[in-house]
């Protein structure tokens, strides 16, 4: 299965970074496409987007200043299938993307994504001290996967914290 395309450009307000595409995302070519994934619902309820988007509209979020990439490009059923070598390579590629595109905020969609990227352990939700790439706000949110058992309201509250760092009103 082929990796899905990143949605990147210079000057992004937020770059969302996932573990890797789901099999459903790999099949459709769209980020967060699994029917059980709550990503777009969370963005809507947190006030980050002006309305509820669908995975098929992921490219449209570039117009709002939101981009998408993953630390590993290979689609899998679960993140547990990602190898240490894939994470090592993905970490270097992701850092280069961040340096190249210079988003205002990099939102890691899952603590494990940030831990793999930064090499840090026991990270907290929200803004991270001492960013791995200087001058970039690094922000950690829960994974939106349906496998995560956190209540939707808790997830929305954590994502809502992104609005503080956007540099402008979110979703507009």
From TrEMBL:
Q: Domain named Uracil-DNA glycosylase-like: which ranges?
A: 9-151
User: Could you give a GO molecular-function term held by this entry?
Assistant: hydrolase activity, acting on glycosyl bonds
Query: Known InterPro entries for this protein?
Result: MUG/TDG, Uracil-DNA_glycosylase-like, Uracil-DNA_glycosylase-like_sf
> Could you name the domain of life of the organism this protein comes from?
Bacteria
Q: What EC number(s) does this enzyme carry?
A: 3.2.2.28
SUPFAM superfamilies named among the record's database cross-references:
Uracil-DNA glycosylase-like (SSF52141)
Assigned keywords, A-Z = DNA damage, DNA repair, Glycosidase, Hydrolase
| NCBIfam families (alphabetical) | PRK10201.1
PANTHER family to which the protein is assigned, alphabetical: G/T AND G/U MISMATCH-SPECIFIC DNA GLYCOSYLASE, G_T MISMATCH-SPECIFIC THYMINE DNA GLYCOSYLASE
Q: What is this protein called?
A: G/U mismatch-specific DNA glycosylase
Q: Organism source for this protein?
A: Paenibacillus alba
